[in-house]
Structure prediction request, 437 residues.
Amino acid sequence: MKFFKVSALVCLFFFMIACEEGATRFVPVDETDDGTSDVTDDSDATDPTNPTDEPTNPTDDPTNPTDDPTNPTDDPTNPTDDPTNPTDDPTNPTDDPTNPTDDPTNPTDDPTNPLTDEEKCDAAGGTWDSSAQNCYRTETCDAKPANSEWNGDSSYKLYYDVNTGAWEPLTYATQFGDGEPQPCHYVCKENYGPINNQCKPFCSAKFNGTDSMITIASEDAPSIVGLESWTIEAWIKQSAENLPTYSIYPILRKGTSTSNAEYLLSGYYNGYNGNGYGLTGSTYYSYQQQYNQQKTADNQVNATLNTLPEGWSHVAMVYNKETVQYGGGNEWTTYKLILFINGEQVKSANYNGAPTFVPNNEPLVFGARNSDRYFTGLIDSIRISDTALYTENFEPAKLSADDSTIAFWDFSNNANDSVSGIIGTPTSIEYSADCKE
Prediction:
């Protein structure tokens, strides 16, 4: 027993010596190694539980087995991120990193499937014609004016160029066109004519200066014979380019021979040697001279103008018998032929004694002498009255019939007088909506 106790004490002694020697062989981690120890620090050792752990990357996430620690731009929070594509946008889940031309800002962009021509047509708002292989759309013409009808289609097609993205041709404009039918062209209905894109009723006669005239038989024509006063007037429109030179081209003339017209009112003409413009009115009459000798003569008034009036002109020839009272209860009677242009008296002439107008049995002709001296221009209206309507300057107005009217022609698509029912025979006459307002 005593042997066993001694042996135990000897073993305890040697164990304690061994422990003290082993303790001196280690340097604590919180102390500085002075280089004399051959034991190394293990604080930078790897995690033996994670074979993919990268201790050199402080951002490495050892809890994510798919994390690529070699790509510093890798986003380990986005499982769909492709770290092998440096252009990949991990913030856009619809981005296709396998297609470098893809536009991730346009969700409908599909560069691998371009649009067909039909799809381009549909996108442009057109209709695809599969047989003609073209794209079109139908446009409606602007509204046509009142009193007109289409001279062509009231709509047209625009065609789309799928390569340039342009619609062709240019838009058609609604306008008058009496030639070949064309989209958006209209013509005026019967008895109407085009004026400023409107269809207005005919109200003037157009004389072409070549063969246009209106003829009224002598027995139907108004006569001034026996009238104590009268007025013959008209609205006319002439162009300086078409005026005759120093020759009388009638608006109206009662008498077709070269002389002795019962009454005559001319249009404008170029003056002699370029001396302004002229206009003439005349009558043929007889009068009693001293010793009861009967004479015949023309009474003619000629106006000379420096400039030709623009647009419409009112011309009037007035015969006026005027009785003047003077001292002692006596009377003095005068007979005068007066010419007015646009309401202004331009010329007058007195008759020799009491005139008696000489009738003839020849026709009344508008716009010519007979088969020559053709008037060129428009005549809006002609009126013959049995009184002197104008003896002083006045403001002319559009003509109409009144109580003193013997005959009135307004040329509303015919050559007929609207007061006495006189029927005229037109030759090469056209009617126009260009009229005195």
Remarks:
- The CA atoms of residues 256 and 370 lie 5 Å apart.
